[in-house]
Amino acid sequence: xxxxxxxxxxxxxxxxxxDWYKSIGDNQISFEVIFVGPNKPDFQLPxxxxxxESHVKPPQCWEIAARRAEGKYLLFLGDDVFFNxxxxxxxDVFTRMRDPSGSPVTDISNFLAGVGYSSTPNPLDTLxxxxxxxxxxxxxxxxxxxxxxxxxxxxxxxxxxxxxxxYSKEVILPVGFMIxxxxxxxxxxxxxxxxxxxxxxxxxxxxxxxxxxxxxxxxWLVEDTRRSHPTQDNSLYMTYGIxxxxxxxxxxxxxxxxxxxxKRSAILEPYIDTNILTKSQGPKGKWV
Length: 288
Description:
This protein has 12 helices and 9 strands. By secondary structure, it is α/β, with parallel strands linked by helices.
């Protein structure tokens, strides 16, 4: 039987994967996990957890995963975001973190509750129910995200929503977003011009351009920032040279910050299947 949801990630932090999988919790809905990246795990993965080795740039890894997926719904994630807070975070990762007043965070669970976070024992079931409630397939449904002990969906409210103008406010910060596989393919998938970040924003804008809707679901993710990006200099994205990522987005959507109609300025350049596992297509920074 094919899974209902495919969880997809461009992934390289193998030490997080089992905790990441455990954070999914108990769900009634069937699902598969597909991770694509350069580092092969030295441990056995669960039966519905698949790894594809590839050394290409991150957006291409997500595209590879999407093309291999069998689920009706695609859920795009990272391997450093957790649905439910792993035990080790409270005792290890955030020990040096400070709250907004500068005081040490001694109880991570209570602190996260203060920014609105709540755990979800069955996040996939919840997202699926959320998705169906909108009664449309032209939908991108995003999770909320706690990053560096902050609800970035709330803090960056202006950046997380499209301009109001004559249109209704809609989320344009896709984090852990779900979309049907058919609609993703109809939109053309990921554009080859993105080297690292913002490919998902481009996809989100295409949903809006197509008169689809972008909404927040009732599921939270927590990013393990210190283990995934210990310093700015060591950041995977910065190391591999993608400083022009915002310029790429603005070049394709010159009107995206103006109260007006969304209109892409260039035709989408999709990935081709030939050598998709072995060679980065389009601009690639330092990836192969």
